[in-house]
Task: inverse folding
């Protein structure tokens, strides 16, 4: 089993601001995945609870978590991946563009559909697979 | 004269957090350019002033402004540009990837060289040119 | 046509934190105007869409954009305008005070009325007019 | 002794983002004063410690605390004070403008001089005096 | 009368980010109390106003203010209180753990009940009492 | 091998703001550990590089990463751990208090010593061990 798949519900309970661009050299697609997992859980809890106060809070928090997914993916795309990676995996640009869109207004930000959250998770898994291949090759 | 060149020193004196992903539909490459311009000015003032307190502040503020350039470009890449744009301008992915890298550790974050800030500005101008073509076509 | 009027939908998709107080010397009332424009668009989309999830998101995002209007105006008032400007334009203090109030609880934060957003835009335009006069004179 | 003078070193160890513009109706000039007091303490510790790492941290933290002073004063000026207050205390606009400038590049942000921090504190005290008079009158 | 009790509705209208860990040596439980007071006022205004837009804003702002209570208490617990304090007041750990929980999902974040806000205020008062005893002893 | 030990350099390249207090129910001590690992890497790079600009950036970024360690630990202590956990592991309060102090002014914030960063990592590992025991028991 690939390790990043085994990660037991890591969380990313923070609001993105800036990534460590020293750089410290530490990257992992798990962070984006964790936020997307949090988004999925929020969608599921929302579906099971029709209290209007709870639902307002869920919408607010899902917005923040989705933004974090976008941020973590952007950081990977710009800061971790280098030209040789893009040559070897030419689909990477589109994968990242679609995954970040999937966490935006047309995706998990704009919808409470757990299916959209699951689809976002699947896209992150595709990116993670490539990420770990490049780490293995390094 | 191209409009985005004519912008008289717009500023972007804010720290990025989240973009309006309602979406409100308002986008402009000027914001990234303004931050890059601020980075350039900081590099120039740094070169002209060897006071250590001033220099510490300049490094700190340049870090924030460079992060803003990255954020504004990421927002354009994910939220404004759609599949038909990427088909028509296949170089867009690489342009954005290089421009955001140019605002990171290997670019304006990691250096006080005004040349790197100017190069970042030039890359943003290329993106802006395509942006305005797509707006005209819309 | 005055340039700042010609700005084609600049955007300000960021959350304010701190302005570049090095200072880098780059200021423009367009940023406040863009946020106010975003607020106006949100009000219009809100009026056209009675989906409760969409409306919750609109309220949340409008709150952030209104806060940005306030921040950008405060920065101009404190950091750009100097004593000679206030002598020449004694109405400036009140203009800024009213415009920032117009983006607060009694204005666009506390209301979904597009008229309030338009009024805020008009107040920013008055400030911008003075701003550009002072720049011309400099 | 006036109460706000007696405040025993309240602290304001937070980074400003947004003020509660519901509004909840709770205002106090102490917050700005506390941040200015923190700035003063930082300047004093900086003068007593010539370790370069310590000094870099002091500059960084003083920048944030000064920004907080500005933010708290802006909130008071826009959100608490109303037209009747400005009529009764016509010097208020200038007091606020000068105090926020005193926390900026020409004041405590741009200098490690404890005298500038003390001067900022004095300006905040003048504002506080008026604030408490308006509260008493309410 | 104890001074911290006399504080006339100090406010803490900011979003927490980082505490001044230079450290500048300035601490006060009033900040947490002020935020909790703001939470209480929001709950009361919510109860008196059934406008759905107002209520959405109240939920959003209460979430932020509750987060601030947690942050300010965490800072006191980690940064102000030292081993000798915990020896002398062995109940401190639990007091802080319960107070921060009282500002979270099971407390003021998850509820619009003014009683929960009042209970949070009472817990902060207990902490403040110990805080001032340790200051007096210092 | 325990999974959380195996985590291959997860990263936490974000600035803490608020944790998902819906709650979504997703927690993991890995986040704090990742930030501490980033702090360690920064200390090592600092020791190997005496360029003053690089060092200023390292100090600035280490400050942010250390703050994130504190935030992630506070969230675990308040939001994940419940009374039965504290009964079963009475050392937990002190462990958390010491670990958060180890990321503050007396620890990794106030020092560039890689030993302090390693010690912080060790303290987080002790907490993680208890965390996973409670998860297993759940």
Result:
């Amino acid at each position: 089993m690939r390790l990043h798949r085994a990660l037991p519900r890591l969380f990313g309970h923070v609001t993105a601001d800036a990534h460590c661009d020293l750089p410290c050299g530490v990257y992992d697609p798990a962070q984006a995945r964790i936020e997307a997992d949090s988004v999925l859980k929020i969608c599921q809890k929302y579906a099971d609870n029709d209290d209007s106060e709870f639902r307002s809070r869920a919408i607010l928090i899902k917005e923040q978590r989705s933004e974090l997914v976008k941020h973590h993916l952007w950081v990977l795309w710009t800061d971790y991946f280098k030209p040789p990676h893009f040559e070897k995996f030419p689909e990477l640009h589109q994968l990242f563009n679609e995954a970040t869109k999937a966490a935006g207004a047309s995706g998990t930000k704009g919808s409470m559909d757990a299916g959209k959250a699951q689809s976002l998770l699947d896209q992150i898994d595709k990116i993670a697979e490539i990420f770990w291949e490049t780490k293995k090759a390094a």
